[in-house]
Amino acid sequence: TLIYLNGEKVDYENAKIHVEDRGFLFGDGLYEVIRVYDGKFFYLGKHMERLKKGAEQIYLELDFGPDTLLETIKKAVKESGFKDASVYVQVTRGTAPRQHAFPSNVKCTWLIIVREAKPQPQEFYENGVEAITVPDERWTRCNIKTVQLLANCIAKEKAKRAGAYEAIFHRGDIITEASSSNVFIVKDGTIFTHPANNLILHGITRFAVLELIKNNNFELREEPFSKEKLFAADEVFLTGTMTEVMPIVKVDGKIIGDGVPGKITMKLIEDFRKLTE
Ligand code: PDD
């Protein structure tokens, strides 16, 4: 593990932030998780774009400059020596006496953690995994990748306790996304996924997979779909930086389709692999 805090390389024991950092007190910060495959970044530019956009939306000034962040990320990955890595990037509004309104003249806290990435077990992709559904109890600005992830953590913990891989959120009757991935279903050859609005994170992997879908000329509809439609789907799969393209074969104990990863899912997994080779 290699850590850069505010642009300085620090060892694990000394990687510390102040108790009044607003990330700690208020969850007042943003993050990204970026994957490196064989020394190459996967859509690094898109991650930087999303971070910048999120910063604008929460009135956070990235005072260190986006180029500094980008260069430090590249330097950190190089120094780590890891060919396959996950890069965790977090930026908070910085340290100031606790008060809700934003402080002035405060510098951002920014953190980069590089870890070696282990691929998930191959059998997950071959056999598929299980999911549960949980109510989407998050706020309504899920497009902003904030570090306020308690609802996501509770959802994932519920999945873990149920022996499932992921928790799929429903807001009322509508399936939005999952605790740390986006959700797609296939019905009669048409692929459905929730539109990229304020109710979901606009996943970079989601974006990459939409391109693959277009290249295959698969029928795609970016529109909300119901929980009922999820259970009636022929195929269900997730997308995410660490999840990649993951087939779901059971939801809430009910078998999806034939109970094995579907044809379209398998093709997208294959195409996705090619992107990362
Ligand atoms: N999670 N939806 C949510 C709620 C997420 O937290 C994530 C990513 C995604 C997928 O986005 P992307 O394809 O850009 O990784 C969708 C990261 C990996 C995490 O929290 O660790």
UniProtKB/TrEMBL annotation:
EC supergroup of this enzyme: transferase
Give cofactor(s), names only: pyridoxal 5'-phosphate
Any one Pfam family here would be Aminotran_4
- Is Cell inner membrane one of the keywords UniProt gives this record? no
Q: Which GO terms describe its cellular component?
A: cytosol
- Taxonomically, which superkingdom? Bacteria
EC number(s) per entry: 2.6.1.21
Transferase recorded as keyword:
yes
* Protein name listed in UniProt: D-alanine aminotransferase
Quote the CDD domains the UniProt record gives: D-AAT_like
Q: Give the InterPro entries listed for this entry.
A: Aminotrans_IV, Aminotrans_IV_CS, Aminotransferase-like, BCAT-like_C, BCAT-like_N, Class-IV_PLP-Dep_Aminotrnsfr, D_amino_transT
What stretch or stretches form a coiled coil here? Answer: none
Instruction: For this entry, list what GO says about its biological process.
Output: amino acid biosynthetic process; carboxylic acid biosynthetic process; D-amino acid metabolic process
Keywords, in A-Z order: Aminotransferase, Pyridoxal phosphate, Transferase
Gene Ontology MF annotations: D-alanine-2-oxoglutarate aminotransferase activity; pyridoxal phosphate binding
Summary of subunit composition and partner proteins: Homodimer.
Free-text function comment from the UniProt entry:
Acts on the D-isomers of alanine, leucine, aspartate, glutamate, aminobutyrate, norvaline and asparagine. The enzyme transfers an amino group from a substrate D-amino acid to the pyridoxal phosphate cofactor to form pyridoxamine and an alpha-keto acid in the first half-reaction.
Q: Which family does it belong to?
A: Belongs to the class-IV pyridoxal-phosphate-dependent aminotransferase family.
Q: Which reaction does it catalyse?
A: D-alanine + 2-oxoglutarate = D-glutamate + pyruvate
Which Gene3D superfamilies has this protein been placed in?
3.30.470.10, D-amino Acid Aminotransferase, subunit A, domain 2 (3.20.10.10)
